[in-house]
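Q: Structure tokens for this one, please.
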Amino acid sequence: MNINKTPSIKKAVLISRPINKSLRDASISNKQAQKLRHAPTERLWKENKIYLLPMMPTDLDEKEAYLEKEYRCLYCDQLYDDQTLECKICCRVAHIDCLFRRGHLDTPTVSQKTDWSCSDCCDLSKCLQDDEMRRIISNFDELDFRKNCYVKFDDYISVKRKLLEENGDEMTEEKYLEEERKFRHMDKNNFGSITWNEYLQYESASLIARKNKIELSNNLKTKELIKAKHLFLRFDNEKQLMINKEDSKKCYMEYIQNLRSKLGPVFVEHISQCIDMFGLNPLSDQKTK
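A: Here is the predicted structure, written as tokens:
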């Protein structure tokens, strides 16, 4: 089943870049930006990929997706039973007790309808390019100068302040509060320190948010496409495989409301900003009246 294996189209585009390699490879600062404006450039062709949207799953695709479900636990390799959760993204399954004993669940008494994603599907870094991954590793190594495999807030701020000073800038109160907010966002357990995994997931999410949305849609698994299909068809009342702008907004809002009920307090921090950005917050309409 290749519904989400849509090929990309390769296209070459003409770009300009500095001839000086040190300027080309460096991260852009205020001083470097001024140098780039006056630096001699070279013209070259760069490969640019154009991605196509995945096709809508057919009824046959849905049946095949159901048949592809694994029937042995991811951890103990025992057969599927009534005390098993199925990954909401891929075809893996795991016993509730196996998940609880490994710390993936807070309680051993949960419903089979509980949303659970396996570790592979939770790893956002799989959507990154190699150079993006190398940059994240390098940045964390710079923060973790004590080589503890975790970073405390004081060390985090000191490195950020040093980087600003190297670029001819300073740590203002506004920037301090912004870095503090980012650190709290990464420190999900409120331990006062961030681990490599917490840093990786946060930076991966930040990079993914800036990526081309059509490119990201090619990373969707079959089950995710099936869910999107059913949500779309609920608003396609005329059965023409298209919905208008208002129905599209309702479609998004229903999806957001489902996430709100499932994620609880986590929803406010992680998703509410996206709602405002896309103009999907119903309260925003009331404020403008």
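A few notes: Residues 165 and 171 are 8 Å apart (CA to CA). The first strand starts at residue 9 and ends at 18.
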